[in-house]
Specification:
Blueprint lengths: L2 H9 L4 H10 L6 H11 L4 E4 L6 H15 L11 E4 L3 H14 L7 E4 L6 H8 L4 E4 L1 H9 L10 E4 L2 H6 L3 H8 L7 E6 L4 H10 L4 E4 L3 H4 L3 E7 L5 H8 L8 E4 L3 H13 L4 E4 L5 H13 L4 E4 L1 H4 L9 E4 L6 H8 L9 E7 L4 H11 L4 E2 L59
Parallel strand pairs: 1-6, 1-7, 2-4, 2-5, 3-4, 5-6, 8-13, 8-14, 9-11, 9-12, 10-11, 12-13
Helix pairs in contact: 3-4, 4-5, 7-9, 16-17
The site of adenosine monophosphate has 15 residues, from α4.
């Protein structure tokens, strides 16, 4: 890290022990959400952060929270839990816990993580010692409060993470019950990738004159990913996958299937073909999921096969390739999937397998991202499917073009750029640029 970049984190007002931790992580500069959010949080303001996982949002709240706690000793008496981070999934909870450990390594602050699906004992005993920061999923937290194992009456800072997903997953009642237990005087940080009306309502209820920070919309982030499509019929896809994986540059691949059984079948097929692969999905036990994830993170497993739900919130660095074994029928899901590669500025590659019936999904995806995927024709399982044409990318009648894009001149038919091979773009703008 150069002197200059270190200064960038310093200019945000972060203290030395945090700067040291950031330096150890090798972060060269704050991401936009960090640059915009950290000063507000340090100033004690409520905040709405419109940002998805992958933008560096965890550090955007974890760094200033650690600093605020470090700067103000807890009140007298039994040390209370001072910060609550509420997040929808176990995986996210674990990752946020790890982030607090990483960024707080030079400070004397303690955190723990509680989530359901595993025994309660270990979590209970962790809560018996001093805990400053609690990261939790809603259900288990309510259980623990119901059993009087902990209370939220002394919370100073409350973070609601991935609010839109929380609502999607049906946690609204749990979340509202928890909010009712928080002290009225507190700082609240609200993070969400999108702001549907229900999330907006929750934000309005929760926040007091919040600062607003937003990072670039999802449809533009895919720019840094090299994307291509392989046309093949359904029965050929498994062999195609094994064929594609002969490429040794695919060091760590996340493969998406639509169903749990599909994930199992693909993982089995790969294992038989001599490729180390594991499947994760909701039918697996928490232990099995954690084992599979750990093997993948370590590099012992080269391919992780997942459903969209199981992959939610998983944040693994260094995914070289995202492979869409099946195309999602919701085009935004495609963007979320391929965002798993090209994390935090690294380049990534996304390959998609498309069968005849999936062609309309491909058209929708290309329309959303406003470009054609590169068609790979050199493979042994090719099927004669016509790639979408430039005219297919024109917005459908009655359906607005994606709001994130600037209008293009020259009428309705958009001549979309082909992906620029070799040129990899950062997904966040440089300081001072648009
Ligand atoms: P998040 O959006 O919090 O899930 O973060 C996504 C990834 O970005 C994590 O793997 C972080 O370690 C990484 N990250 C966070 N801040 C930075 C930064 N300033 N520079 C580079 N990588 C970062």
């Amino acid at each position: 890290m150069t002197h200059d970049t270190e200064r960038q984190f310093e200019e945000l007002g972060l203290i030395e022990p945090l700067l040291r931790a950031v330096r150890t992580e090798g972060y060269s500069e704050p991401t936009p959400i960090q640059r915009d959010a950290i000063p507000h949080v340090l100033a004690g303001r409520d905040l709405v952060g419109l940002a998805q996982t992958g933008t560096g949002k965890t550090a955007a709240f974890a760094l200033p929270i650690l600093q605020l706690l470090d700067g103000a000793p807890p009140r007298k008496g039994r040390p209370p839990i001072r910060v609550l981070v509420l997040t929808p999934t176990r995986e996210l909870a674990s990752q946020i816990g790890e982030s607090f450990a990483t960024y707080g390594r030079h400070l004397d602050l303690r955190h723990t993580v509680v989530f359901g699906g595993v025994g309660q004992r270990a979590q209970e005993s962790a809560l018996r010692s001093r805990i400053d920061i609690l990261v939790a999923t809603p259900g288990r937290l309510l259980d623990l409060i119901g059993q009087r194992i902990l209370a939220l009456s002394e919370i100073e800072i409350f973070v609601l993470d991935e609010a839109d997903r929380m609502l999607d997953m049906g946690f609204i009642h749990d979340v509202r019950r928890l909010i009712a237990l928080l002290p009225a005087r507190r700082q609240t940080l609200f993070f969400s990738a999108t702001m549907p009306p229900e999330a907006q309502k929750l934000a309005d209820d929760l926040l007091d004159e919040p600062a607003m920070v937003a990072v670039i919309p999802v449809a533009t982030t895919v720019d840094s990913v090299l994307q291509s499509v392989y046309f093949a019929e359904k029965p050929q896809k498994r062999d195609l996958l094994a064929h594609v994986l002969r490429d040794a540059s695919i060091t760590r691949a996340l493969v998406f299937t639509r169903t749990k059984h599909g994930a199992d079948r693909v993982a089995r097929h790969l294992t038989r073909a001599g490729v180390s692969a594991e499947a994760i999905h909701g039918n697996k036990s928490q232990n099995a999921r954690e084992r599979a994830l750990a093997g993948f993170k370590r590099g012992a497993t080269r391919v992780l096969v997942a459903t969209d739900l199981a992959a939610r919130g998983i944040d693994i660095d260094g995914i070289s390739h995202v492979i869409n074994f099946e195309l999602p029928n919701v085009p935004e899901t495609y963007v979320h999937r391929i965002g798993r590669t090209a994390r935090a500025g690294a380049a990534g590659t996304a390959l998609s397998f498309c069968e005849e019936e999936e062609r309309p999904y491909l058209v929708d995806i290309e329309r959303l991202i406003r470009m054609h995927l590169t068609v790979v024709t050199e493979h042994p399982h090719r099927s004669e499917i016509a790639p979408p044409q430039p005219t297919d990318l024109a917005p459908r009648r009655g359906r607005a073009a994606p709001a994130a894009q600037s209008p293009r001149p020259g009428g309705t038919a958009v001549s979309a750029p082909r992906p620029r091979s070799g040129r990899r773009r950062r997904w966040w703008p440089r300081r001072g640029s648009a």
